[in-house]
Amino acid sequence: MCLAIPGRIVLPPSEHFAEVEVSGVRRQINIDLIAHEGAAVGDWVLIHVGFALNKISPEEARKQIELLTLLGEAAEVEREVSGYGFSSGKGNDQA
Question: Which of 6, 18, 71, 81 is most buried by its number of CB atoms within 10 A?
Answer without folding.
Answer: 18
